[in-house]
Amino acid sequence: MEQAALLEMIGIEKWYGRVRAVQGIDMKVGRDEVIGLVGDNGAGKSTLIKVLSGVYPPDRGKILWESKEVRLGSPRDAMQLGIETIYQEPALIDKVSIMRNIFMGREPIRKVGPLRWLAVSQMARESVKALEGVGLELRSPQAIVEQLSGGQRQGVAIARAMYFKTKLMILDEPTNNLSVKESRKILKFVTDLKAQGIASIFITHNLQHVYPVADRIIVLSHGSKVGDFNRADTSVDELTSLIVKG
Amino acid sequence: MNELNTPENNHSSRSTGRGTSFLLALRRFLLVKELASVIMLVVVILIFYVLSSEFMSLDNLRVILQMLPELGILTIGVTLLMISGEFDLSVGSVFALAPVLNGLMLFSGWNPLIAFILPLIACLGVGALNGIVTTKLNIPSFITTLGSMMVWRGIVLVISSGFPFPWMDTARPFQRILVGDLGIMRVSMIWYAALIIIFWIMLERSRFGNWMFAVGGSSRAARALGIIPDRVKICSFIIVAFLAGLAGMVQYMRLEAPLPSAGTALELDTIASSVIGGAALAGGAGSVIGSLLGSVLIRIVDSGLILAGAPSYWFRVFVGLLLVIAVAFNRLVERTIEKVR
Fold this sequence. Notes:
The complex is a heterodimer. By secondary structure, chain A is of the alpha/beta class. Helices cover about 30% and strands about 30% of the residues of chain A. In chain A, the strands form three sheets. In chain A, strands 6-9-10-3-11-12 form a six-stranded mixed beta sheet, sandwiched between helices. Chain A has a four-stranded antiparallel beta sheet with strand order 2-1-4-5, with helices on one face. In chain A, strands 7-8 form a two-stranded antiparallel ribbon. In chain A, helix 4 packs across helix 5 and helix 5 runs parallel beside helix 6. Chain B has one domain (about 30-165, about 170-340): ABC transporter involved in vitamin B12 uptake, BtuC. Chain B is about 70% helix and about 0% strand. Chain B has helices spanning about 20-30, 35-50, 60-85, 90-105, 110-135, 140-160, 170-180, 185-205, 205-215, 220-225, 230-255, 265-275, 290-305, 315-340. In chain B, helix 3 packs across helix 12, helix 4 (about 90-105) runs parallel beside helix 6 (about 140-160) and helix 7 crosses helix 11. Chain B is globular, with a radius of gyration of 21 Å. The interface of A and B includes residues 76, 94 and 144 of A.
């Protein structure tokens, strides 16, 4: 991995009032790397991810994106760089159609003179493509999201991220609350991402899920990084004891 | 009406047999947001047709069409605000505020054009204030607008001392523009139709409309997608207050009196007609066509009861029943859709 990293976080620190949630964390992500980010509850995984997705600015430290220093002031800033976050409860609007969800906030517009309106047929066409891109077979892009299963909802959120040319996909506990079969689909998405040259950070409690798909596994404990391994150099047992001992 | 039955959506289904395509057709039918109000409209028309021979007369149609725009224009706004996930209880007071301000200005000899435009601008301000207080101070809009309902009704009474200003001849040109007589209806019906088209396009075919659904459906998700919920909500409050002022002007021009008591209890009637038309109390659902159907239903019930010789007290009973039936029907449909899935 000699080429420049896609993302580099250096000395990231974040406080909530007098509580230090994350301290001095360094982390590198290569261009098509799958990173497993593991740790117990309260280890700082979520805080680190919120810094990276633009929700909270860090109190100290630097973020380099494609070797340039960046400031992530809002989720929009992160999205514009190509960082998409898929939450455990994906950011979807239940009562609205799949296609409107895929383009929500980034709607294509048709213009005639001073008039502009939503390019609805383009939205329908492109969402079919986006859904096929992640292997999601749904009856129609007009289906209301409320009627989808948990795995399908994750699929729509992932299809959206893929459509907008994401370079780094952050998956925050995506397999929680999913059936075994649906979890397996999400894991396949992660390996597909790598094949398409997209990096991902996969946050989870579940080592059994992340171990088979990750290139590198980073262990957090009490807000600090306590381990950073190539998968080949470690085992589920070693990781487990590291998480438990901190 | 709903994106499920617009032409570009018909290429989508992958039916495999006759059974599936029937189920798909059934689903599509049930998913029409305005289904409950359409069925109720048919039933109510049939009931009043049986009860009174006058009901289907041109005279009755005239009465309905004359009064419809006042309720309908306001209901468009209330529906949009409910879609964005908020309420406005102050619409009845704003409905009286614009006419009373106009009456005061004309009575004091102001230029009629300015006296017509300034009160509507004041309504925009009232809406902005409702929206800013609700979103920036994080107060439920029920409370904010309950307060502003009292404040503006009070101000209306203070300005007018409780009596309407005399009707001024300088208001005549605006009377013709807003409510001029066209035989079966007044010009206000044309304004109403235009507003329906404009706001339908805004809601169903513009980014802003898309964001209203997002913000009302889930503020958290909307924010994660880069939409700024406060901005969308404040704009919705401004729209509803403006439409309340405009609807008030329409009634004032029809009655030729800026009544300080105009619009009393109107906030509840408009919420009722929005909900009957399929708007969700929790936000994120509703439609402009539904707001039209809900308003038509309420106007039909009003005139139908009078023609059937029922005391006017029955009006509230009927509207209350329709409201509960509409919501119950929509719940039932939701469950049926789950089964058809």
